[in-house]
Amino acid sequence: xxxxxxxxxxxxxxxxxxxxxxxxxxxxxxxxxxxxxxxxxxxxxxxxxxxxxxxxxxxxxxxxxxxxxxxxxxxxxxxxxxxxxxxxxxxxxxxxxxxxxx
Length: 102
Known about the structure:
By secondary structure, the chain is an all-beta fold. The chain has strands spanning 2-4, 16-24, 29-31, 37-38, 53-55, 70-83, 88-100. The chain has one domain (2-100). The chain is built from no helices and seven strands. Strands 2, 3, 4, 6 and 7 form a five-stranded antiparallel β-sheet that branches. Strands 1-5 form a two-stranded antiparallel ribbon. The two termini are 17 Å apart. The model has no long low-confidence stretch (mean pLDDT 85).
């Protein structure tokens, strides 16, 4: 799956992704990520000149559902993060996609 920074017009790339879950209407589902993970060689404020897109690839043990089955994907996208020494603050957006197996 490829995600894109919601702030791509300012060239602010994807710093981290998290809470990545898939659910299939026939009862299956898979949780890829619970907590956020840094991507594109980022960590806190060390995220300069990073790509706007990030492609996540991971195998999972879930059979392909039949054609016409609806599915949902949820993921949180984080972009520019600032480490103040006391807290870590990132802009983020929770994204939901609903589709069906063709």
